[in-house]
Amino acid sequence: MLNKSLIYNLPVKIIVYNIAAVAILTVGVLSSLYAGFLEPDLRTTSSTLSSVVNGFATILMFVFIDPYLSGLTDDVIDGKYSEIHFRKIIRLMVASRAIGTLIAQFLLVPFAKFISLIAISI
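The structure assignment produced for this chain is given below.
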C-alpha cells in the first residue's frame, strides 16, 4: 500500500529538471560533433562549442537538483523524512536519468543546429 504522505512529497519539478539535465548532458558532445558534420568548414569551432549545450545542464544541476538532494539528505539525518522515503526519491532520480537518456535521442538534431548557428555567427 502506498503512503499518501509520500505522494504529496514527490519532487516532480526536481525530477523533470533532472530529466532535462541528463538529456542535455547526454547529447552535448554528440551534438557538437554532428554540428561539425552539418557545417564542415566550421567543424573545429563546432566541436569546441559542446560546453554551450552542457552549460545549461550544469546550471540546472547546480542550482536546482544538487541543493534539493543535499537538503533531503540533511532532512533524513535530522529525522524529518524516513530512510525509505529517501530511497524512493533516489530511485525516482535514477529512473529520471534513464528517461533523460532516452529523451536525448530527440534533442540531437536541434542542439546540433543550435551549435552550428552559433559557429556561423562567431
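Interim note for the steering committee: The two ends are 57 Å apart (CA to CA). Helices lie at 4-8, 12-38, 43-48, 50-78, 83-121.
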